[in-house]
Amino acid sequence: MSAIERLPEFDNGLLRFLACGSVDDGKSTLIGRLLFDCKAILSDTLSAITRSSQRRGLEAVDLSLLTDGLQAEREQGITIDVAYRYFTSGRRKYIVADAPGHEQYTRNMVTAASTADLAVILIDARRGVLTQTRRHACIAHLLGIPHIVVAVNKIDLVGHSRERFEEIRSHYLQFAERLGSAAARFLPHFIPVSALNGDMVVERGDKLDWYRGATLFETLESTPSARSEGDRRLRFPVQYVCRPQSPEHRDFRGYMGRIESGAVAVGDAVLVLPSGRETRVRDIRIMDGSVPYAGAGRSVTLLMEDAIDISRGDMIVRREESPRIVKEFEAMLCWLGEAPLDPKRKYLLRHTTREVQGQLVEIGHRLDINTLEQHTAGRLLTNDIARVRFRLASALCVDSYGQNRSTGAFVVIDGSNNHTVGAGMIL
Amino acid sequence: MTAVAVGQPLSHLEWLESEAIHILREVAGQCANPALLFSGGKDSICLLRLAEKAFRPGRFPFPLLHIDTGHNYPEVIACRDRYAEMLGERLIVRCLDDSLARGTAVLKSPDEARNRHQSVTLLEAIAEFEFDACIGGARRDEEKARAKERIFSFRDESGQWDPKAQRPELWDIYNARTCKGENIRAFPISNWTEMDVWRYIERERLELPSIYFAHRRPVVRRSGRQGTLLAPVTWLTPAGKGDRVEQLSVRFRTVGDITCTAPVESDADSVGKIIAETALATVSERGATRLDDQASEAAMEQRKMAGYF
């Protein structure tokens, strides 16, 4: 598998995945192993971590050093922020989000999970399903990650035992059931793994013959890529209006944005929200050319039949597939701010390309993500997750997050200092 | 325009392109007065094509800004000017030499590498034009400190990046809000790798400065932290006593300040050959070519905290 042999097949989509676990579970070692066996580590990087390993008095090269980034982190020997790694298998490009397992865990994992198509949840085979495993499963579920892989790592340290693997699988599934009905469609994929030795990561190894399923790498390679699944309804939030007013484009009005879901074709009858005006798509432009049709994920420019007023923050949809137009909604909210959520204050809610003022109406309950127990709560602190109700100063066009990760998500901004303080998923 | 199968799932390069266009349009939609940092290097040349895709047939909603260290290869400056003219967009150039003359930037010695000092000139230009955002071509795969930087990265009134106090960035909802004097650096190709950039240059048939392709050049071998580097022999970096000057076929993988950018030995004289070589490369882009990142493991992080982009 030299790099050059892999070249021709290169362009087969992109997969963003998230590795959940702590250093103790061997998460960094697993990512390091994946990069190493895919030959995605370059020699100077390898020699740099070899030197670092030696300086710290380690005997073997510590593959976990590949994912430790910032100076502050190296000093403390922990990862404090989400880091992104890139590698390609030859058939697919990967973006790996590595969320740290220590302080600010929820905040970091929620951030990393928000863009992930797949989560790898690591379990130490000796320790089994722990509180943190439940936390990982809960956040992955909450953030709507469509594919879950449970990697039962350090299987070599339990004698490559199939019984232990099955036991962990059934423990995990017992908890996953409690995450709600939607969890059924996740159906996690369980893989016994030894990241240290490389078994079932890229290579199968020869110690786990009882396992017939796909390796971690094969699973990553075959998971459907970003945006190829999901909501079929057209959602086109307008980002920018192009009116060149130049001699050759005097009457040009282009509505620029990305098709978040569904597809659009020339001639389609569409609805502009929240105004509710109707028109038809006259042209779809990509740079200086026209296309008859464009699907989810494409950044395009739409031209309309009628000169109606459309601006940034509006959403273009198909008439019969309208989202909810709301001035109040319920959501699961993860509080990220250092200061607690203040029910007396107004915050800014940013949803697709629109920003509105909003105020908390009530906190339904706070969710304990370790036990899934619901508690009453008067306020929310950093890393708290709660069911809340917001009232808005003007309307938003929303879908439930479960149906659409683009039009169901919002962030909360503190207008006094412009910090991003909350992340919400509309129910 | 390439005839794209726009109903198909996106290839990885199409995904990256669409993401970058989305980011550029968010900058334009959210910021009052942005600028695009354009050096004439390959990454910023990709940014220009992405900006065309994002905003044509309109003009770019931002000027191009180049911070000139005065130590650039003439081929790169010529290419910079050609692009600005070809696109009909406004190019602002601000020179480190002017900051040095004003005394706002001070070199330790006349031959000190100038890369670090361009932050001063950049911050002065931001203040002069009251830019609230600068779009840059930095990529997360370049360097460890960049790997954790946001796509919309906040800088305080003194232009500093605080890695421990970054705004959480979720989904692709970006927060470009600033108060006066503060600044956002936006990185549309954060998720691209060196290979992606070359693939894009190939697909879009982008013109590059000639020094990206194999050419013969006098060089001397110098030892760095990570092995031997080739140092170009130029008017700024003459050979020292006892240096053995060799004429080698080389190309640049990155082009920056002459004093800190080293070429690699190569016969690749076309984009296709460079892609093949990149696929086989065993040394990372900055590791092979940047004399300034070799000083310490945290070199980039420290420069960024001081306002470097």
| Major beta sheet, strand line-up of chain B | 3-2-1-4-6-5
The assigned CATH architecture of the largest domain in chain B is 3-Layer(aba) Sandwich
Could you tell me how far the N terminus lies from the C terminus of chain B, measured between alpha carbons in angstroms?
32 Å
CATH superfamily of the largest domain in chain B: HUPs
Name the poorly predicted regions of chain B.
Answer: 1-5, 293-297
Kindly name the structural category of chain B. alpha/beta
**CATH level-4 homologous superfamily of the largest domain in chain A:** P-loop containing nucleotide triphosphate hydrolases
Q: In order across it, which strands form the biggest sheet of chain A?
A: 2-3-1-4-5-6
Please give the radius of gyration of chain A in angstroms.
Answer: 24 Å
Helix and strand sequence of chain A: HEHHHEEHEHEHEHEEEEEEEEEEEEEEEE
What would you note in describing this structure?
The complex is a heterodimer of chains A (427) and B (309). By secondary structure, chain A is α+β, with helices and mostly antiparallel strands. Chain A folds into three domains: 3-222, Rossmann fold (3-Layer(aba) Sandwich); 236-321, Beta Barrel (Elongation Factor Tu (Ef-tu), domain 3); 324-426, Translation factors (Elongation Factor Tu (Ef-tu), domain 3), CATH 2.40.30. Chain A has helices at residues 3-6, 27-37, 43-55, 71-76, 105-114, 131-142, 162-178, 216-222; strands spanning 14-20, 83-88, 93-98, 118-124, 147-153, 189-192, 236-242, 254-258, 263-265, 269-273, 277-286, 289-291, 293-295, 299-304, 315-318, 324-335, 346-351, 354-367, 374-375, 385-398, 409-414, 419-426. In chain A, the strands form four sheets. Chain A has a six-stranded mixed beta sheet with strand order 2-3-1-4-5-6, sandwiched between helices. A six-stranded antiparallel beta barrel of chain A has the order 7-8-14-11-10-15. In chain A, strands 16-20-18-17-21-22 form a six-stranded antiparallel barrel. Chain A is globular and about 70 Å long. Chain B has 309 residues and is an alpha/beta fold. Chain B is built from ten helices and ten strands. In chain B, helix 2 links the parallel strand 1 and strand 2 (64-68). The two termini of chain B are 32 Å apart. Mean pLDDT of chain B is 86; it is low at 1-5 and 293-297. Chains A and B meet through helix 1, helix 3, helix 4, strand 2 and helix 5 of A and helix 1, helix 2, helix 6, helix 7 and helix 8 of B.
